[in-house]
Design a protein that fits this description.
With 152 residues, this protein is of the alpha+beta class. It contains five helices and five strands; from the N terminus they run H-H-E-E-E-H-E-H-H-E. The protein has a five-stranded antiparallel β-sheet.
Length: 152
């Protein structure tokens, strides 16, 4: 069991152990790394049965630093210590930003959730089949970011 406050550090260490660097990750490598981290590492005080440790994959257009971009992100959402208030909801988010193009502008925004490690095989198939995922897998991201923050 891991303290949720160490999630970001532990995830980065796993990348390093697998000879990966955050700055050079591909989307598929990042997705696989986050899925593996969810599958293999349980968080203290975050019950799977109570949906306190889940995965979110989301995508869509948004306004980045200076202009519109297309973002694809996978987040591990944790509700810490069975909290019931907004301040208990934290996410470890690995996001990939892409320069907007006509193809990406045509993509709808959306999200897919996975509520248990036992469902990961089906979840991975679902994500890999998404048009938005396919649209960016061969593109180089303009920004890759790993955050651990309260989202409540």
């Amino acid at each position: 069991m891991m303290n949720p406050e160490l999630a970001k550090t532990a995830f980065k260490e796993r990348l390093t152990e697998n000879d990966k660097s955050l700055s050079s990750l591909t989307l598929s490598e990042g997705f696989s790394a986050m899925i593996g981290f969810y599958r293999d590492v349980r968080m203290e005080g975050c019950s799977l049965e109570e949906d306190e440790d889940i995965i979110l994959f989301h995508w869509g257009e948004y306004n980045g630093d200076d202009e519109a971009c297309f973002e694809v992100a996978i987040a591990r959402q944790l509700i810490v210590d069975g909290g019931t208030d907004e301040e208990a909801i934290w996410q470890l988010t690995l996001s990939f930003e892409y320069a907007m193009s006509d193809t990406l502008a045509e993509q709808d925004s959306g999200q897919e959730w996975c509520y248990a490690p036992k469902d990961l095989a089906e979840y991975e198939k679902c994500i890999n089949a998404l048009d938005a995922y396919s649209a960016v897998t061969s593109l180089a991201p303009i920004k890759i970011e790993l955050l651990y923050e309260c989202v409540g």
